[in-house]
Amino acid sequence: MDLNWLRDFECLARTLNFTRAAEERNITQSAFSRRIKALESWVGLPLVNRATYPIQITDAGRQFLPVAMGSITQLVETREAIRDTEGGDNRFVRFSVLHTISVNYLANRIESMQEKIPDLRTRVISDSLSSCCDLLVEGAVDIMLCYYHASVSPRIDDAAFARKDVLSERLIPVASTHPAKKHGWDIAATNGSPIPYLAYERSSFLGMVVDSTVGQKPMNVETIYVDGLVETIKRRLLNGSGFAWMPETAIASELAEGLVVPIGDEGWSARLTIAALANPATFAPQAKEFWDLL
User: Hey, which of 28-37, 126-135, 168-177 has the most confident mean pLDDT?
Assistant: First the structure.
């Protein structure tokens, strides 16, 4: 059981539309459908009648919905009650953050902040975009860090949160230097042997950015590996398995050392912004100090 499945089902029961619910949950419709099916598999019965328009919640779904909503509420309230009882959580600045931003940006930023805030204590939750947004909206974290892109951005109420853009970087197609030069890999080339492609899950944020960047451009590539994590794809990339789109922060040292090289010009790159979102009105002193220096 994944708590996100319950949130997904509540959203679908309210909207009665897979497309609208997926948009609200910040994931692709295919990924949203898979999660609803996973929940139905866990329950053991269909929760949604997909043969009607608009869709209808089945008898089993109507029976399960109040349990799902109650479980979400009880878990959140219990978490807050535990925190209030313990009374020590205010010492920590709490973050929800995408995995790759956590590894390649936030860890270093926290370390540099500790020189300015010697008693800084942090708790970081690295997760998917939808989970990070849920944690921010529910008040479970102080600050969320995520990517923004011109055509793919978190669907979150910007009016309810302050936003700071902290870094701009490119998402670029790169490959390990030796195989790239040996085989003459060029993503714009339409002839020759296909270039092995290490791809992101299409439902992931970076997967959607790549799809938006590539558009209808022809590519002579063969997808040999699909994953949702930048660091896992990077490992295969450095082993020479193929090429991948990488955020510059994830491969900065490898680019500087000549271990990887771009295999496409600027037309194949995308511009990403790392942004921080928060509700400063709820900040404890350390969170406010961190936000002001961010």
Answer: 168-177
The per-residue pLDDT for range 62-90, each reduced to its tens digit, is 999 999 998 988 887 787 677 655 555 56
d(CA 182, CA 97): 38
> pLDDT tens-digit profile of 244-262?
999 999 999 999 999 999 9
For residues 49 and 60, what is the distance between their CA atoms, to the nearest angstrom?
10
Q: Tens digit of pLDDT for each residue in 97-124?
A: 998 999 999 999 999 999 899 889 999 9
What is the set of domains in the chain, with CATH numbers? 3-85 (1.10.10.10), 88-162+274-293 (3.40.190.10), 169-272 (3.40.190.10)
Tracing tokens 């509540």 back to the chain, one arrives at: 10
Output the six-digit token pair for 239.
């082993």
Q: Which neighbouring-strand residues pair with 226?
A: 199
The encoded tokens of residue 175 equal: 């490959």
State the pTM of this model.
Answer: 0.73
Banded pLDDT at 127 (limits 50, 70, 90): confident
CA distance 103 to 93: 17
What residue type is 116 in one-letter code? K
CA distances from 4 to 1, 12, 25, 42, 250 (A): 9, 12, 9, 13, 28
Spatial separation of the C-alpha atoms in residues 284 and 120, rounded to whole Å: 12
Match 């896992």 to its residue by tokens.
Answer: 232
Any residues with CB less than 8 A from the CB of 207 and at least 6 apart, and which?
A: 199, 200, 201, 228
